[in-house]
Amino acid sequence: RLVHALLQHLPDRPPAEREAAGRRFLARPGHGLAPEEQAEVLAEVLAVLAHPEVAAAFVADEPGPTGPYPLRYLAEAPIAGRVGGQLIAGQVDRLVVGAARVLVLDYKTNRPPPRSLDAVPPLYLRQMAAYRAVLRAAFPGRPVACALVWTYGATVMPLPGALLDGHAPAG
Fold first, then answer.
1. What is the Cα–Cα distance from 22 to 13, expressed in whole angstroms?
2. Residue 81, Cα to own-chain centre: how many angstroms?
């Protein structure tokens, strides 16, 4: 819960302020974390925010490089749609909508995380395939890329389209 909250709110701050803001947030009495636990959680989150494969997803909205559409960076974005006859609703941890593509990041806190795609729980693959199907319908003509972000160890695991196709909702 705390990791998700930090990943939701710290990107709204300039990078130079993120560590101090995270420290203040985790030190709140209601969180009940010992100082060493606070440091561990914050280090995990800061490593994800700085990860070269996804760091660009953790910035504020900005004008798009082409056309009138800005890039949109959304945290905890609710999505809903119908794929075939099936209603799909969910909440995307981080959604980046650009003129050329859509990127979906889903945070997972498994300890330890899977080391390979074949070890990813099928539930996660079905979830991401469903999000991808809804977003493809919402943004026709734009590719939708998906990745799992394992916070433990700050590992990014892109999910190939062919893998998600095998877990896509019927429709």
1. 10
2. 19
Instruction: Provide φ and ψ at 45, rounded to 5°.
Output: -65, -45
- Tell me the two tokens of residue 96: 């980046």
DSSP string, 120-154: S-HHHHHHHHHHHHHHHHHSTTS-EEEEEEETTTT
pLDDT in tens, 63-109: 545 544 557 888 899 999 999 889 999 999 999 998 888 999 999 98
Alpha carbons 110 and 171: distance in angstroms, whole number: 31
pLDDT more than 90, % of the chain? 65
Neighbours of 25 (CB within 10 A): 18
List, for residues 58-74, the tens digit of each pLDDT value: 876 555 455 445 578 88
pTM of structure: 0.85
Q: Give φ, ψ of 154 to 5 degrees.
A: 45, 60
Give the neighbor-by-neighbor strand order of the sheet with 72-83. 72-83, 86-97, 102-108, 144-150, 155-159
Look up residue 122 and give its two tokens: 């099928």
Full 3-state SS string of 29-68: HHHCCCHHHHHHHHHHHHHHHHCCCCHHHCCCCECCCCCC
Tokens of 80: 């809903």
**Single-letter code of the amino acid located at 45:** V
Q: Please, how many CA atoms are within 13 Å of residue 104, restricted to the half-sphere of its CB? A: 29
